[in-house]
Amino acid sequence: MKSTPCGVWRLPRAPTDNVECDNVDDGYDDDDDDDDDASARDVDDRVYDELWTNAVAHCYEYHDHTFHEHFDGESPTIFFPLRDVNEYLVKRVTKNRADFFDDYFVFDTRVEYVRETTDGASGSDGTWDGGRRGGFLVTLHHLPSGRKYDRVFDRCVWAAGENRVGSIPKSLRDVFIDGGAVFGGGWKCEHVGGGGIEGEKHIEKEMGRTEDDSIVFVFHSAETHSIRTHCPNRNVLIIGGESSAEDMALQCLKWNASHVDVATRQDDWCLINSTTQWPGDRVRVHLEVEVCSVEYGNVALRHVMTKWPCGYVPSSNDEGNGQYDNDGRAVILKDIRTVILCTGYDANLNMLDPRLRPECEMIPKYNMGDHHPSIFVSDINWSKWKMKNGDNAAHEYTGDVDGGRKRMIRKNYNHPDMHRGILFKNPNMMYLCEHGSDIPLLSLDVHAWLLCSYLTRRVPMPTVDELRTANIQQYMDQMHLPTIRYDCDEAYHEILYSKVEYWGELEESSSSEDDNLDSDDNHDEDEEEEEEEEEDSPADLDEIEYEKYQLRLLCRVMEEGGYPGLCIGNYESLNEYGNRLIKYSFLSDETRHCLKADHPEDSEWRTFRDADEQAKSVASLYTGTKARPLNKRWMDINDGRRTTIRNGGV
Prior knowledge:
- The structure is a single chain.
- The chain has 19 helices and 19 strands.
- The protein is of the alpha/beta class.
- The chain has a six-stranded parallel sheet with strand order 7-8-15-9-10-11. The protein has a four-stranded mixed sheet with strand order 1-2-3-4. Strands 12-13-14 form a three-stranded antiparallel sheet.
- Helices cover 29% and strands 14% of the residues.
- It has a domain at 168-343: FAD/NAD(P)-binding domain (3-Layer(bba) Sandwich).
């Protein structure tokens, strides 16, 4: 159930089974309002006009449609406009079959509801794995005609995308509404903005505002088509700490924002803080804060303690959610006119009967607590479990930590309610997910192949008991990695969190001007310190092992599903190609970390995407074609439909 190309794959017709498959719209909105659904699609489409990838593109090149082939022999850059990525995915499945989408997709059709039925079709032997009979009754809505009808299917694969519906926390929304902010774009709210400057003047008049009473316009990061007109010559606040916040900060600078503040509840280790230099020094990052009040153009931030996935909150006696360190610290951001919420996305499961949904949702929330006991692993006798300490750097700092109750957050192909995308309570119901991978497009493709292998019976589907056993065993295996146990075990987290020597020195990325002291006399001493900082900290070494583990898990899925065209090793070890993927994965981090140290003279314009030196070390896994630097500075590239790799605009 998905109507836009993502994680697509090519699958020859199965030799013994004819599998009927319809791919339809996923019921984006909660309502039956057709205009809302169309608006949602417009938002999705326009995102491709502006944004770029933030990881090395060569990690998701496919064996059956290489970059060399797609770009007609032209060497690509290591970062792409999203438009190029979208075109690449579509071309992959249409190059040998131009009518692919016409033959296998049903467009302009929304899935209204999916529920189990005992009256439907069944497998050729009357059953499906697990002994279940029947299938799924699917109610469809053809939008142009308004006709609704039912169809019955044996199996159902949810592939609507984990990042499908923009998410805005209610508490955050309420703060801005109480402060008189206007939600622009397509979000339903007390006021609806948009329409550029003239639209703002109209709203000011309706609300009784004067020119001195600045209106704050609020957008979700998906609404790039609306955000662009609200950036020039304005102070912008971005809320969030991951890749979307980084993307929007750079785009706002390109759209001539006067200054950008970024506020995040996360601490030093969030992605937004890894960038050591922003163009023109026009971005300021505020860590461990949240918006507490809004009054016209003044936005107040208060300090908040980070709550980790395992439930641990440092220096807090408050057991509730949203713990605060009431030390009096506060930041007032003045004359903020535009706010961009990079607060993530939710998977849309509204079209599924609750019995077909994971009990812990697609991504189990960190604050579920005992209300969702399935996120706690109770099938393991943790009193007898011992962490392997020979292969990790953390043990020197933690010693042996007794095993207590641990959470199973959805990470590295683990989910409390499913394994390999198969729902335990109904194995006919499958989910195509990213599985927490740092290379999501490759992971989606590999898992899509596995599910297709199950559906066409190329590969025997495991029983539910086998899936549960494999899920628990995988969880036990990955708990030997400090990076994962740190997220899942509160007792372990508390001990390791306090070991400053383990984490090493953080690179200063958002320090104030007061910290940048002129010290010519200490120049040699500073150089020595920089050299020392280049050495990997113990935490860095464990992070490398964690990244390798992610790929080793993907190797296992490749083997299980018979994934063709690419071998990156096996579960025991990675081969040359797997190690190159690891290198490329870390390369995007390197482009951020080295900005200030390597290019202080280019501080007015250079971004992590201006990675000339790093591009020289990247080549296709399949053809050996070398990557190339951008043709011009990223800040000078004219985004939009005309800017692609093909026409030399990149």
